[in-house]
Amino acid sequence: MATARDVVATALRLIGALASGEVPEAAEAKDGLAALNRMLHGWKARGVDLVHADLALSDPLPLAPEFHEGTAQLLALRLAAEYERDLRPELVQAAGDSWAAIRMAYAAPAPLVVESGLQRLPGARRGTGIP
To answer: Which helix (H) or strand (E) holds 30?
Structure first.
């Protein structure tokens, strides 16, 4: 299972801030973790509530394994500005696709509220259920 540290390192590699096999320095890992936590908490406002507390670097990611790479791609988009890196179009596309998949799997639709005036059809007889 991927940890928060794994996701941060992958995101940094995706934007070219780390070379293959390199690990983030303590400051990079701390900044990346803060960005990851902000991103995951921000998802709640967009309908994806993972119901999690802030992650530590050694904590497992609170998503199914098939969404770990997509989470790293989305984090890479956030970190690119901080590291003044240009984003490759294929990374932007992959992150968008990943976000769509995460939303489909984790989004909780808001409950449907039907106003009382719309619950009765015009012309329906009261109490009988017969139009």
So the answer is: helix 26-42
Q: Tell me what percent of the chain is helix, strand and coil, each rounded to the nearest 5.
A: 55, 0, 45
Q: Does the model's pTM come out above 0.85?
A: no
User: What's the average model confidence in pLDDT over 41-56?
Assistant: 92
- Supply φ then ψ for residue 3, to 5 degrees: -100, 170
- pLDDT band, very low/low/confident/very high, at 1 (cuts 50, 70, 90): confident
Hey, how many other C-beta atoms are within 10 angstroms of the C-beta on 59?
15
